[in-house]
Amino acid sequence: MTGSASRRQRRKLVAARADPKLERRRVALVFGIFLLVGVPAAVLVQWKIQQRPKPFQLIDVSGADYARGFQLPDQNGVVRGLQDFKGEVVAVFFGFTQCPDVCPATMTELVQAKKLMGAQGAKLRGIFVTVDPDRDTARVLKAYLGNFDPAFLALRPNPEQLERTVAEFRIHVRKNPGVSPMSYTLDHTAASFIYDPQGRLRLYARHGAGAAALAAGAKLLLDGA
């Protein structure tokens, strides 16, 4: 009888913890106690923030003062900015078409993430920004996108635009000379910048984050997180 009663008590405790109304009451009670004993408001705010669920599997960079936007020509010569993609989640990735591994792997992950999202996948927009405008001509970029998703876009900044964009996004790009003037390689930051449907930078996805994490983050942003 004692064991049975104990199990019932544990079940009640678990149910109580899962009840959102009881959880809100618990938070309010703790706040009240803190106020009574004179805990500073800043401490209360920090405690409240720590109680919030952390749903994103990617790095949350909401409110960042960099990567705030761009105005760059796409593979068709049309100048594009975040204002063109209202209502969509935008994933911006910097790379170059002759990149042998990181770039195609990231583009493939974005395609897979779009598929994992089901119907919502139509609202995930992949944007490939070339850091190699000398070799990545409009024709080359169009062919490159054809290997992944025709709805994705490529942006081709001129050298001056590229310099400004690299500074705004705080990314690293380094040119490594080859045996001939056009056989160079490039080192660059391998990450994606994820924007919510209002055009705000929200998430940072390191290379290899995975399609599932990208899809989950995009779905949360579309759902208003």
Summarize the structure.
This protein is of the alpha+beta class and 225 residues long.
Topology of helices and strands:
Elements: H1 2-18, H2 20-36, H3 41-51, E1 59-60, E2 71-73, E3 79-81, E4 89-95, H4 102-116, E5 124-130, H5 138-145, E6 153-155, H6 159-169, E7 173-176, E8 185-188, E9 191-195, E10 201-206, H7 211-222
List its traits:
6-stranded mixed β-sheet, two-stranded antiparallel sheet, membrane, SCO1/SenC, 225 residues, 10 strands, metal-binding, Glutaredoxin, globular, alpha+beta
Assembly category? single chain
Estimate percent helicity.
40-55%
Report the biggest beta sheet as strand number plus sense, adding barrel if it closes.
Answer: 6 strands, mixed
Tally of individual domains: 2
| Annotated CATH homologous superfamily of the largest domain | Glutaredoxin
The third-level CATH topology of the largest domain is Glutaredoxin
Q: Specify the CATH class of the largest domain.
A: Alpha Beta
CATH architecture of the largest domain: 3-Layer(aba) Sandwich
Mean of pLDDT: 86
Topology pattern, helix = H, strand = E: HHHEEEEHEHEHEEEEH
Q: How many strands?
A: 10
Query: How far is it from the N-terminal to the C-terminal residue, by CA?
Result: 46 Å
Low-confidence stretches at least 5 residues in length (pLDDT < 50)? Answer: 10-18
Q: How much strand? A: 15-25%
GO molecular function, one term: metal ion binding
Organism: Caenimonas sedimenti
Domain Thioredoxin: 61-223
Binding site for Cu cation: 99, 103, 188
